Every structure is written in C-alpha cells, then in structure tokens.
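Appendix B: complex inputs.
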Amino acid sequence: MKHKVAVTVNGRKHEHEVEPRLLLVHYLRDVVGLTGTHIGCDTSQCGACTIHVDGKAVKSCTMFAVQADGRSLTTIEGMARGEELHPLQQAFWDEHGLQCGYCTPGFIMAAAYLLEQNPNPTEDEIRRGLEGNLCRCTGYVNIIKSVQSAAKAMGGAQAKSGERAAARS
Amino acid sequence: MAVTTMIGAKIHRREDPRLVSGEGRYVDDFTRPGTLSLALVRSPHAHARIKSIELTAAAKAPGVVAVYTHKDFAKVVSGTMPVTPSFVAEKKQVPPRFPIAEKEVVYQGEPVAVVLAETKYQAADAANLVEVDYEVLPAVMDLDKALEPNSPKAHSGAPDNLGWDLTYIPDDAAVMKEADVVVKERILQQRLAPTAMEPRGVLAEYSRPDGTMTVWLSSQSPHFVRLFLAGALSIPENKIRVISPDVGGGFGSKISPYSEDWLVPAAAKMSGRPVKWIETRTESLQTTTHGRGQVFDIEAGAKKDGTLVFIKVTQYLDAGAYMGTFAAFQACACLLAGGAYNWKHVSARTVGVLTNKVPTDPYRGAGRPEATHLCERTIDLLAEAIKMDPAAVRRKNFITEFPHTSHFGLVYDSGAYGKAMDVAMEIAGYEKLRREQDEGRKKGRYLGIGFSSWIEICGFGPSAGTAPATGGIALVESAQVRVFPTGSVAVYVGTHSHGQGHDTTFPQIVADTLGVPYDMIEMRHGDTAEGPAFGYGTYGSRSLAVGGMAVHKACKKVVDKATKLAAHVFEAAEEDIVFDHGQFYVNGSPDKRKAFGEIAFASYGAGLPEDMEQGLESVAYYDPTNFVWPFGTHIAVVEVDPETGAVDLQRYIAVDDCGNIINPMIVDGQLHGGIAQGIAQALFEEVVYDDDSGQMKTGTLTDYLIPTANEFPTFELGRTITPSPTNELGVKGIGEAGTIASSIAVINAVCDALSPLGIKHVDMPASPDRLWKLIKEAGK
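Resulting structure:
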C-alpha cells in the first residue's frame, strides 16, 4: 500500500506515492533524484545523510519519507545560490576540508545548522557540535578550520585557535 | 600566474567544487535503464557445512527476478580468486576461493546465495526468505590455538591451519650474546576495519549482442579488476570496461577484487539486465578485508651505553579464512623491523595462519605501521632497561649514511632522521614537557610523552621486485599526454584518486614540465576505456613517486618532439633550441620565440620534418629504479586518568619528510587523516569476534568506534625536505605516513604515563577498560 507524500525540496514542490517504509534518504536519492545526500552506515552514526528538515539538521536515514510529508527540506544541492557557493561550501574548498568528499555534504549540512544556532562557536563547540558526523580522511583538522573560516565569513568572529588547550587547563 | 612555479604551490583542489555541491558521482549515484538490485544471502556462521538451500519462497516473493547459488555461478565464472606471492613466494596452503560458497562456509558473511529484484527493498525482503540448512562446525578464532596440533581446521579436510612459515634471516647467537640488556615483549596488532565512508558497490551492464561488459565499481585499481574479471568471466579484456568514478575513500580496502566484483557482473550476464549491489555498513564491517590482525614476539638487546645490538621478530599473521590477494604483503613488517636504526643483527620470521574470519589484506600502511610499532616500542623498552632517555637512544643509533643497505638488502634512498627529530622536539618543547611531567607526577598526575621515529618503504615499485610479487605484472605506472591543436592538454593516468587530489597535483607537474597554463590541463583517471592500455592503481603511497613520474616522463616525450619541430620551424639545430617557460627560441635569439601552443598547432599541419608524424601526444610507462623512503618523528603527549583509565591526547606533533613537495596543502591533509587513523588504532578501534561462535561483535558503527572530531586535538605539523635521489622530481610518498607513525607515538606516551605504576606494556586499543584493569592490577 502506498502513501502520498508532498514535500518541498530546495524550494521545489514534489509529490509522490511511496511505500510507508521508504527511508527519507532513499526517497531523496532514488525518487527525487538528488544523489548529493550520501549513505555511510545503517545505524545513524555517520551523518553522511544529514539534511535540513524545516531548518533543523536531521539524519535523513532516521526518518521515513512519509514523516516528511508537508515539510520543507534542504539538501546539499540547495545550499549554493546559483553560481555562488554557500560560505561553508567555499570554506571547505578554501581550507581543504575534504578529501574523498563522501562525508562532506553531511558535514556542511550539520555545520550550517551549528552556525545558525551558534554563529561564533569555539573550537571545542565545533568539535562537539559535529560529533554526529564521521570523516575518515581529514582527521577533522581542516573541517574545524573550514567551519571557523565560514563562521567568520558569515559574520561571526573567528574562533580563536588554542581555545581548546586553554579550556582544558 | 607564472607557469613554471606550480610545483610546490598551494593550489586549491579542482575536484572540490563538485564535491562540496553534491555533484560528486559515486557508484550508487549511477543507474542504467532496467537495473535490478542484488542482495546477498550470507552465512551467519563462522564455519559450517551447507546441507541444503531452499529458494522457493524467495523466488516467489514480490519483485524477484532471479535467485542464484553456486551452481548457477559455476556456469559463468571460472577459476578461483587471485592470491599474489607478495613477500612470501612459497605458501604452505592457499585454500581455493570461489566467490560464492558451495558446500562449506568459512567465515561469517561469506556469500551463499544472491537475489535479484526490481527494488532494493524487495531484494532485501526476498534474501530473508532464502532458507539455508547449516551444520555448524567448530570455528578457529585464536591465532595461538590455531597452530596447536589438535586445533579444529579452518577448512574441513585441511592438514592444519598453517598458511606460510618463512624465515627471512635466522638468529645470530653470537651477536645476541653481545647485548648487556635484553628485553622481550609480545605485541598485539588488533584487527581493524578500514571503513572508507563510502562502502563498496558494483553496477554491471552486459550487452549480449556486443559481448561487452561495463562495470562501475568503487575501486583503487580498476585495471586490475578488468584483468581479473576477464579471466573469471571469459570475456576478453578489450570487451570489458571498468569505471571507478568518484570513490569515497579506500585506505587499501579497495585494491583487491572481491566476490561481489565477480557475482554482480555474472548476475548481469545471466539475467540479461543491469545489476547493482551497494554494500551496507554491516556487510562492510563483516566482509570487506580487514587490516593488521597480527601478533609479534620480540626480543632485542642493547649495550649499556645505548648501542643497539640485535632485534629478533616473529610475526604471526591472521590471514583469515582465505588468503587476501595481497595477504602476504603485511609480512613487510618483518623487512622493516629494524626501522630507522643501525642494528648489528636483525632476524625475522613470518607465520601466516588460517582462521575462520574475514581475510586480512592491506590497510593504510600495511605492514609498515606494524613494523614501526614494534620497533619503536622496543626502543623504549631498551631505553627503560638501560635508564636512558628514549630520544637519546634513538639519536645514538639513527642511520646517518645514505644510500643505506638494510639487513634484508633493501636500499634506503635518503634520509636525515636526526634533523626531523630535532624539529619535532623543538615544536614539542621537549625539555619543558619533561619538567611538567616531573611536576605532575608529584601531584599524582600521569602525563606521558611518546616518540615515534618512523621510516617506510613506499612507491611500489621497481619492476624487478614487483613483477615476481604480483605473479607477473610489474607495478610500474603509465600516463598519456595529448596536446590538442589549440594547445590545451589532456592527461590520462593509471593511478586512481579517491581523496588524494591527483586532479590538482598531476596538472601541477604537467604545467611545469610543458610550460602550459594550469587551467589548460585536464586530468582524467578511473576509466579503463581511456588512456594507456594498463594502469596500476593507487596504493602503497605510489601515485606521485611512480604515477607522477609517468606523467613527467610522458610530458618530456612531448617536449622532445616539440623541440625537434621547433628546430625545424626555426631552421636551427635541435641542440640550439631553448625551451623555457613554455616558449621555444634559438639560443642567443630569445626575442624570436614560438609558444608551446604554436608548435602544437604546427604539429598538426604540413611541412613537418622528414620522419616526423603529425600530432603531439605520448604514452609513457615509468619503471622506478628503487622504492622511496620517507621518514619523520612524531611526539604524542597524553594524560591518563588513573580513576577511569581514560586517555586524554593533549598534543600531537608530527614532523615528516617526503622529499620534494608538489602541493603542501595536500601533503598536510594526507598527514592529518593518516595520523587520525593511527591514533584510532591506538585508542579506539578493534574488530571483535565471539571466540566460540565466531560471530562478529562489532558489526555496526555503534560498536566499531570510528573516532569523531571530539576525540582529537589539532595536530601540530612540521616538515623537513630531503629530496629523493630515486626520481627526477625528488619526491617520495605521504599517503600512509601518518598512520605508519602514529599508533606507537600514542602507545609509547601511554606507557610513559603509566611507568611510575610499573606498567611496561599496553596493547591496543588502549581503551579506558583495558587501562583501568592494568592500573588496578598494578596497584595490588
């Protein structure tokens, strides 16, 4: 038995009949055709599938598509404005915040929500704020730098380096 | 931008705009009309006999198109999966491996049946309806027990569980007697799951009329997959196209071919429809090859003044249920056991053991992290035994003359080990750290400082050594350079980039060698239908030192031809032509010049010199004369909480030397990620199997602990540059360096922290649980 789901994705309306068990991430990738949202685990650990649901960061493997009915979704494909990259996309590029790129969309979506909640995070707050996302390539060093750089570009003051060490002692 | 300053420049990656925009294209992002989803039925048991397989219910399930088992695949797949000699030419037994089990399963996760259905949900549903009747057999799970004469056998009917037993160099009893102090230790290298963020995946499409097979898969070495597939499916290599598009990390786990690389194309051939399989994370943890999985028995001796005398290493390597394609590569841990030091004697033996676990195969570093770990732990044990500062023992024994021929006949090309250590100690503020440690100890704080002075062999490799190791194919590298009439350039390479940034760094080399603007150079890789006939892939930190050199060589061939043509155009002798910054002129007449692009255009025209063909393109295969030998010193600073056993990694300093650098930003990035993976081994990760049932206890990322951003400090990097004399670019490799170095820097720091308690050895992962028990035991 199929259910109707009507969602707005990156500003465009979509309506489909889907199985009630269809995961939101599969809906976005296989039905809507937006493959920038990735799948890296089966247990909601990796965060590669992070999107925004009504402005909040959500791992899209933790929701059924039918639960998104009537909601507004943003995926990585919806972050740039035309040719102009989102400051976080630009910062990940500038700071070498990605290598294989597979986790990157999830990190950018999680970081965007983090900066919305806290425009001027400390290094520690960034590290804790991105705990729901896994990266295997970067050791997170340049991901942290990317978020700091984006925070600055977006108007928040840059988190000072060394704050983490200071916080510890 | 000046065209001859690209090498060494921090150029931002050209692959990034698509990757940050969600426009990367990984295997699961591709589809073909009519694609079926494939789901595997896998053994839940580590060791069992298959009594029967009941397929009726699965075959009738909604959306199911076909259900196949061994007997179906046996009609289209021939031979067994490849096992190379690697570092052990003669093996005692190599269990034949077909990509799907017939009568016996030998590890949890081994394929037993496959289901093809219209959707992935239907395929997964139907796979659950396949009923397999198993007779469970005893599983071999422990390395030591596996070698006992009365042990169950990993494969029924096998004489024992011995895969290989090779002594590279025997002991020298006379030298061993020269030591004033002798230390012994058993060092565990736990099994690790490589865990690239993108799981494996295969999409295959077969054209019956044309007899062509196209395979998209997540691979570090698409040409090797094509070679092996040709043999297995009896399709000529020229009819198989393997495309490895954007790949979400490899770390060694996507080099060797897998069962699914055979089963998915075979299923496409049998069903007549495109077939796709994407690995789940649980499948990945259970069935993608593991790394490490070794135990080392070490004995070493030194003089009272700190002079190293001998080290004796016995490696027990848990090969798993079958030999991985490069299972015996990890035996290179023996060949590098001496590390960065002069020893009077090094003896080494490797023993490969079959168990009922997933096969082990290369994982980032592959043998070299193990070598560094055992050697650097041994140096600290000896330093403690003779009451010398561990830094001083290292410095006293560093190899200082290059080229240096090791006990195993390997030739270290260049190094300045003491210099890297000086820089690391300066960044760390070593003396101050020791003072802080002393003061801390008075207050009951357990601070530790750990060194790792690492070396590695990489850049695989010279044909004379690598062709026998693979069983025939020399691990050289190929590149093709095409210069178009208007002067833009396309370069095709046989390496594969899955995070390493080759799309950026290789054009940097091309720009300097051809004198062509960087933006006019296009780089392509990962599609066997393009470029040279064969490519060798990316692993063993080889892409720059071998592949980059192939690019350089192909460019030089182009310059040679363009120079001949320029001489003809200028009506001058070839030796009088100067090529500088992309411009040709006759020596002494720099005002009258032709740009590279003008010569390229002329090469497609008329009136060329006699014997010169039109066009400006080249193919080069580069065969290096030696391996390359990066090195460095890392220092970890930790504090251990004696109440909880928790390790706080406070600082991590890394000074590395990989010769000349093409792009410093990318070198630093490779180090960051490598260091994190080694720290992850030291503190967090471990594949755990149940000893009795042989079932994996760490089958999800809830249980297998990939560290998050919150587990690391910001690494402090420094650098020295000692060019490699092995190649014209003076480059070495850096992809694995961080991982090779970092596990033991952390463990040495933890041991140093706990030394006041009399704790001399800590196995990995140094989890709070493990340390708490050690601390409690020490307090008794």
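Confidence is low (pLDDT under 50) at residues 157-169 of chain A.
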